[in-house]
Amino acid sequence: MRWRKWVLITVLAMVVGETGAWAAEKLVFGIGVRSGFSAIKKDETFHIHELIAYHTLPWDWQWNGGWILDTFWEIHFGLLRAADKESVLISTGPMVTLQTPWKSLAFMAAVRPAFLEDHNFGKENLGGEIQFTEEIGINLILSKYFSLGYRFQHLSNAGLYTHNPGLDFHVLELRCLLPGYLDEGQGP
Question: What CATH class has 2-177?
């Protein structure tokens, strides 16, 4: 079991280190906070709290109607909490956003491999340390630097372990682009 933790941490470090070279052309950095709770009743009620760091990737597409598809790389550091127990949850991976022509609304989707420090929470066993998180959501762009978002997030081990109950969350988040890194026309 311990070797899996080190393999995952090593792979995540290599992936995060490599993406910096890809995004040199139009690098925009941002940070965020998010918090959520179980969407579906289980034996235990789960809460998730995360800090986010993200940057743009060099691929984006713009259409004549004003729609913009943009790509990002995210790193999440958080806590998963249930049954009076907390466990560190770390994930990293790509996100795509589709910004509407009126620039105040964006849709997003993301998928990330994740590492969960401990997978037992009272009566709930999430199967193992290696997890995957997928999410879809919507962002309300409040200003050039800030956005408020809702995410429907799924966390599971994708059948890597015998026990795979999966968790679904309703998550609210606040994102902030770091001043000095913002190009004209880009938003969170």
Answer: mainly beta
* Residue carrying the six token digits 């070279």: 21
The greatest distance separating any two alpha carbons of the chain, rounded to the nearest whole angstrom, comes to 53
Q: Is 80 helix (H, G, I), strand (E, B) or coil?
A: strand
Q: What is the pTM of this model?
A: 0.81
CB 69 within 8 A of CB 47: no
Whose tokens are 């049954």? That residue is: 83
Which residues, in sequence order, are CB contacts of 151 under 8 Å at separation 6+? Answer: 34, 36, 108, 135, 136, 137, 169, 170, 171, 172, 173
Q: Domain residue spans in the chain?
A: 2-177
How do residues 18-53 score in pLDDT, each as one tens digit? 444 443 456 789 999 999 999 988 889 999 999 999
Residues 61, 66, 71, 75, Cα dihedral to 10° = 170
Tell me how far apart the alpha carbons of residues 168 and 73 are, in angstroms, rounded to a whole number: 22
